[in-house]
Amino acid sequence: MSFRQDQWLEAMDVFEDHIADDSDPREAQRELDELAKIDADDKPHREKCASVWRIIKQGV
């Protein structure tokens, strides 16, 4: 079985993450940094989840 990279990216993007359309590694690093802050925070899980979802859909 073989597939192209664009097919793989489309299949892996189950949340329609905006970063899949942005190839800027600096943006990806900013998002990873923000996700680490959210993970370390002691806010309720519901708030953390909302913050992660915002990043997935809109970015930092």
Walk me through what this model shows.
The longest helix is centred in the middle third of the chain and has 16 residues, at 25-40. The mean pLDDT is 90. The chain has helices at 5-12, 25-40, 45-58. The N and C termini lie far apart (36 Å). The chain has one domain. The chain is elongated and about 45 Å long. The protein is mainly α and 60 residues long.
Shape, principal axes of CA atoms: elongated
Distance between the termini: 36 Å
N-to-C series of helices and strands: HHH
Q: How many strands, what sense, and barrel or not for the largest sheet?
A: none
| Counted beta strands | 0
Q: Whole-number average pLDDT? A: 90
Q: Which spans of ≥5 residues are poorly predicted at pLDDT below 50?
A: none
**Into which percentage range does the β-strand content fall?**
under 5%
Helix proportion of residues, in percent?
55-70%
Radius of gyration: 14 Å
- Total tally of structural domains: 1
Count of runs of 4 or more consecutive helical residues: 3
Structural class computed from helices and strand pairing: mainly alpha
Keyphrases for this structure?
about 60 residues, mainly alpha
What is this entry, summarized?
With 60 residues, the protein is mostly helical. It contains 3 helices and no strands.
SSE inventory with pairings:
Elements lengths: L4 H8 L12 H16 L4 H14 L2
